[in-house]
Structures are given as C-alpha cells and as structure tokens.
Amino acid sequence: MVRVTTTNRRGVLRAGAGLVVGGALAAGCDTGQAAPPHASASAASPSSTPSATTPAGHRAAAAPRAYPGLPAQITHGPRTRPQVALTFHGQGDPAIAHSLLATAERLGARLTVLAVGTWLDEHPDIARRILDGGHDLGNHTQRHIAVDDLPEADARKEITDCADRLKRLTGSIGTWFRPSRSPTASPLVARLARAAGYPHVLSYDVDSLDYTRPGAAAVTRKVLAEARNGSVVSMHFGYPDTVAALPDLLHELDRRGLRAVTTTELLS
C-alpha cells in the first residue's frame, strides 16, 4: 500500500476533499462516475489466494481464509500494530460509494466493503470497482434484513444468494461475511456462514453511528474517541456525512500513526 505522509495528506485534502464532498452533498442521487483508482496503490495481503483467473487489468478476487487462533466472530485485529480497518456496509447511492472509494484511494487508505446482494444486482459494476481499487469485498446478505431472526432455510438463502452474486461478478464469494441488522451472528447464522465458505464472521469494535446522520464532525469524533490499534470500524455507504467525514478522519488517524488498511491486511 502506498504510504501517504501527514504532510502529503494535508495537500491532498486541500486539493480534493471539497470537490468530492461537495458533489455528494449537493446531489444525493448524483450519477457521476468516480475517478480511477491510483495505479500503484494496493493493500492486498501477499498471503491472499486468488480464487479465479480474472481478465487482464483486473485484480484477482481473494477467497475467504481461516485465521488459526482467531475466534469465529472477529471484532478486532492485533492490538500490537498501528493499523485500523474501516469497514463499510455496501448499499445506497452508488455515487456516494464511488466518492468514498476515490477519496480513500487518494489518501492512501484501503477499505473493506460488505456488499448487499440486491445492491450488486442493481449496480453490478461496483463489485469490480471495489476490488480494482485494492479494497476488500465481502458478503452482507442478499436483502439486508435481520438475518439472525430468520428460519434456517431463509437465513441460508440470504447468505448463499449474496455469495452467488459475488462469485458471478468477481470469481469469489468474497473475503468476509458480516450479518445484516446485527453486529454479531447468532450461532445458527455463524454455522450457516461457515457452511457457505466463510470461516469467520466479521464484526467490529467501533461503531461510527454514521447511519444516524449526526453530521460529519460527530462521525469523526465518535470514531477517533474509540479507535485504537487493531480496531475494526463500522461505517456505511449511502450517507453524505460519511463522505464529508472521511478526509478529516483519515488525516487524524494518520497523525496518530494509525494506518487505514483492509481487514485482510489487518489480520495478516
């Protein structure tokens, strides 16, 4: 991954943050295309194994992997390394998603996106865009309903339907699974996720609460008050406050010496 210094980041913030945030805030349904990802930026773990051969020019889609010694439900990474994982629930206006991805890439950060299957159905290009930007991509169920409350057959279908979308679009079922409408999976859902090919459930230890629309400053304060070495932060696509918060959040994390990396890199 390209390392961006605090000094460089300040220059990037001045040059680009206003344009990205302004566009997302001014038009909630903006359909403009995102800027292309930085050609040399990459946060993929060297230990990640591609699950399929991809067309020339595309990043290989990594398969899920087991992390021996880690629990079935992962809430954070090692507390000994100055890294954090910003993880995003993937749905909502694709223009906001493109803005977040482009902003993160300009500032040298890589994200983890847990995509909703119906969102992928509506915007199939976004899966490849996420991977080609060097980000992690995972499964956040097909319809983003309360999967822990479903009967077994319905819960299984929520997981496998989204996995099938990811497999069709990228060649992999995605690197991670996160249950919808709950920070943790029930024992049943955790078992179904393992059966579908996900050795771990990805939870988090910091909730940005950006979905409550508290304003960009509040989102930034909430994350910075709780993030530390190894934190996994829950955030969302689809909210302009999150776009507005991201530059300042990344700047302050960098000032504290915390790199924003993919979950794969956090745990590798």
From TrEMBL:
Known PROSITE patterns for this protein? Answer: NODB, PROKAR_LIPOPROTEIN, TAT
Disordered as annotated region, ranges: 32-62
- Entry annotated with the keyword Signal: yes
Sorted keywords for this record are: Signal
Entry-linked Pfam families: Polysacc_deac_1
Signal peptide (from-to): 1-26
Q: What PANTHER family does its record include? A: GLYCOSYL TRANSFERASE-RELATED (PTHR10587)
Identify this protein by name.
Answer: Polysaccharide deacetylase
Native source species? Streptomyces incarnatus
